[in-house]
Every structure is written in C-alpha cells, then in structure tokens.
Amino acid sequence: MDTQQNQKDSPAWIAFVWLSFAISSGLMILGIWYLPVDAWVKGYFAMGFFFTMGSCFSLSKTLRDQHESRRLINRIVDAKTEKILNDYEMKKAV
Predict the structure, then answer these.
(1) Counting Cβ atoms within 10 Å, is residue 14 exposed (0-12), middle (13-18) or buried (19+)?
(2) CA neighbor of 86 nearest in space, from 78, 3, 54
(3) Number of structural domains in the chain
(4) What is the pLDDT of residues 46-84, one digit of tens each?
(5) Residue partners of 78: CB distance under 8 A and separation at least 6
(6) Does residue 4 fall inside a structural domain?
C-alpha cells in the first residue's frame, strides 16, 4: 500500500491568510466603531460580527474533520481490499 503525504501550505499562503484575517477583522471593528448610530446598535453589530466569525471557525473545523475522517475510512477500505486481492493472488499462485 502506498503512503499518502500530508499537504503543506507555503509560508507565503499562511502569511496571506493571517494578514487578510487581521485586516478584514480590524477594518470591520473600525467601521462599527465609527458608525453614526447609538452604542446599542454598535454593540448589536459587533456581537453579530463576532458570532459570525466564531461560526465560520466552527464550520471550517467541522468540514476539515469530516474530510480527514473520510480519508481514514478510505485508507482502511483500501487496505482491506488490497489484503483480499493479495490473498486471492496467493491462492491462485498455489
């Protein structure tokens, strides 16, 4: 059975992702801060922003975990199939 290697992201991609997250979050918070509305409206928008951000993190982690579990199940099924084929070929050779 061939081994699968983990995919690694480049340092440039990781820097881009963190930088874009920091900039977009900072600009959103700054935009909420300078809105010409009452404090309770700003609080409502900030709460919505932080809950949306938390939901995005939870969703991405859940999707990643589902993908990883599918990969593990597929590797187990492939190993069982390969064992069956090897056993069949051994019996056929004898």
Answers:
(1) exposed
(2) 78
(3) 1
(4) 999 999 999 999 999 999 888 888 777 777 777 778 888
(5) 1
(6) no
In a domain, 6, yes or no: no
Count other Cβ atoms within 10 Å, centred on residue 84. 10
- The boundaries of the domain holding residue 72 are 11-93
C-alpha angle 75-81-86 in degrees, rounded to nearest 5: 125
Tell me, yes or no, whether 1 lies in a domain: no
pLDDT in tens, 1-29: 455 566 788 999 899 999 999 999 999 99
Q: In this structure, are residues 28 and 37 in contact, taking their beta carbons and an 8 Å threshold? A: no
Structure tokens at 60: 């991405």
Spell out a b/e string for 27-63, using b for 16 or more CB atoms within 10 Å of the CB, else e: ebeeebeeeeeeeeeeeebeeeeeeeeeeeeeeeeee
Q: By three-state DSSP, how is residue 61 classified?
A: helix
